Amino acid sequence: METDDLPPLWQFVHLAEFSPPRSSSEQIVRKWGAFKRLLRRRSEMEQSPFMPESELQRLPSSLLKSLTGPVDWSGAVSALAEALAGWSGAEGEPKVVFVVGPPWSGNAEVLHAWAAARQAACVKAPTYADILQQNREWVQIPETKGEPWVMPQLERCYLRHAEGLDPVRHFLEHAMRGDYGPGIIGCDSWAWAYLQHVWPVYCSSVLTLQGFDGARLNRLLRQLSVAQVRPTYCFKNASNGHMVMCAEDDVATEVSAAVVQLAVRARGNVGLTLRYWRDALRSEPEAEQEGENGDTDTNSETDPEGEHTVWVAPLTTSPIPPDDTTDNVAFILHTLLLHRGLPEELLPRVLPMSRAHIMATLLRLRALGIVEICEGGWHIAPLAYCGVCAYLRERNYLMDQFQG
Q: In Å, how far are 122, 165, 341, 351 from 197, measured between CA atoms?
C-alpha cells in the first residue's frame, strides 16, 4: 500500500527545477541489489528461467492493451491544479502561466483535461492558412466563466517561415500584457526553445511535469500493468530471468534495475517511457497463438502456482540517422521537432529544398524507422527520438531544455 510519506506520483515544478533520472541511479540500484541477487540467484533461476529473446514473440495486441492501458491523466490534472492554486492573474501577478513539456509527455492532454474540469475556455490554434496570411484576427478568447482561458498547443500557432511568425508574436505580446485576461499557455518543449529566440521575453512562470524516476515509474507501471488490471501477472527480465515487477510487490519494494534503466532512457518522459515499455514486452510463441484466439487469460507462460509471466526484452536501440554531407537530414528532422510534426504539403514552405528532395529523404528515414506518418503529417518516430536528439546535438542544433 502507498504511504503518506511517498512523494506524489505527479508533480508540476518550475522548468528550471526539472530533474531527469541520472544514469548513476542505475549503478546505485545495481550495487544496492548485488548482494541480494547473489544470494537468491539459484532460487530465482530455478523459479524464473530466462528466455532468449529469439524464442519470444511480441505480446498479443489484446493482452498488450489490457496490461498497458492508456494513462489516466487525472492525477496530473490534480497536480497542475495544485501548482496553480496560488495564482489568479491578479494585479502584481503574471498574467500568463506557461506549461511546457517534451514530445509525448501528455502536456496538451493534461491542459485539455484541466480546462474541461474547470469549465475553462480553450483557445483554438489558427489554421496554417491563417498563419501564412499573417492573420492577427484568429485569436478568439471565449467566455471564461471566471476561470483562466487555456491555449493547449502554442506549437500549432507558428511556422518557421518569413510569413509564419507574426501571428504568434502578436498573440504572445497581447497575452503577456494581459489584454486577454489571465491565461495558461501550453507548449511543446522544442517549439518553446525556438520561440524564445524569435520572441525573447522573460517568462517568470513556466511549469513542467517533473520527470519520472525509477520509483515513480515503478508505481505507474504497477497501476497500469499489475495492481489494477491483472494481479496474477509478473514481469521478468528476458535476459536473466530476474523479476522486474510483480503483483505481490508494494511501493516499498526495491525498484529493479530494468525499470530504472527504462526511466533513464526516456529522461523521465512518461509517454516516451511507456512506448519503450510496450515495445519491450514479449510472450512465448504458444501464448501468441492462444492470444490470437481471443483467450487473454492464458496469453503468457503460467507457472505451477498460477502466475502468468510476461517477459521484458532489452530496450530497443534508437536508430541513428544516416550521415549526410548536405546536412539536409538534420534540417528536416529539426524542423519536424520544432513544429511537432507537419503536414506534407507544408514541408516545402518551411524547408530550403525541393519537394522531391524532401520526400526522398523522408521515405529513406521512414524505412530506417526514424520518421513516421501519423496524425495527418510527418513526425519523428518515438523510439527514434533519443537517437535523433543525439544526432542533432552533435551537429550543434538548437535543443530543448529537457535534453541536458
A: 26, 12, 20, 19
How far, in Å, CA of 280 to CA of 366, rounded? 21
Q: Which residues pair with 341 in a beta bridge?
A: none
Cell numbers 505481490 correspond to 248
Confidence tier at 288 by pLDDT (50, 70, 90): very low
pLDDT band at 147 (very low <50, low <70, confident <90, very high): confident
- pTM, 2 dp: 0.87
Residue-range domains of the chain with CATH:
23-68+212-312 (no CATH), 88-204 (3.40.50), 328-403 (1.10.10)
Q: pLDDT band for position 301 (50/70/90)?
A: low
Nearest to 56 by CA among 303, 281, 302: 281
**164 Cα distance to chain centroid:** 27
SS3 317: coil
∠ at Cα 21 (16, 24), nearest 5°? 125
Q: Judge whether 235 and 4 are in contact, CB under 8 Å.
A: no
Q: List helix spans (H) across 53-134.
A: 61-67, 74-83, 107-118, 128-132
Which of 137, 61, 107 has its CA nearest to residue 299? 61
Q: What is the pLDDT of residues 179-237, one digit of tens each?
A: 999 999 999 999 999 999 999 878 889 999 999 999 999 999 988 876 555 567 889 99
Of 383, 237, 382, 309, the closest CA to residue 63 belongs to: 309
Question: Distances in Å between the alpha carbon of 124 and those of 62, 96, 149, 378?
Answer: 35, 17, 11, 22
Close Cβ partners of 43 (under 8 Å, ≥ 6 residues apart):
none
Query: CB of 157 within 8 A of CB of 131?
Result: yes
Task: Output the nine-digit C-alpha cell for 276.
Answer: 519503450
**Structural element, H or E, at residue 224:** helix 214-225
Residue-averaged pLDDT of the chain: 85
Q: Which parts of 189-296 are beta strand (E)?
A: 206-209, 233-237, 243-246, 281-283
- pLDDT, tens digit, for every residue of 335-352? 999 999 999 999 999 999
Retrieve residue 395's grid coordinates.
551537429
At residue 191, the pLDDT reads 97
Strand partners, 243: 236
Sign of torsion, CA 357 362 363 368? positive
39 pLDDT band (50/70/90 cuts)? very low
